[in-house]
Amino acid sequence: RNIATNPDDATIVDTIIQMGRNLKLDVVAEGVEDEAQLNFLQKLGCTYVQGLLFGDPTSSDNYLELLLAQAEGTDQHRALFA
Predict the structure, then answer these.
(1) pTM value > 0.70
(2) Following CA atoms 7, 13, 4, 63 in sequence, which dihedral angle do they give, to the nearest 10 degrees?
(3) pLDDT for the residue numbered 77
């Protein structure tokens, strides 16, 4: 939760991401809630993120609708893919 501001939390997250990268694994950070956390994780080279910053938990049907709307450019949510 405090990865962008707490040095101990930052060290733990950095270590986990680096371990994953050294093992040639993709790393998924869960629970990303704000831009500061996202920016911090991106700087560390985290491969994937998920969390409330991108949307509330949803059903697979609703998720499919969201993906289709984003592909068509008709959604009002933050893009899941750059």
Answers:
(1) yes
(2) -160
(3) 57
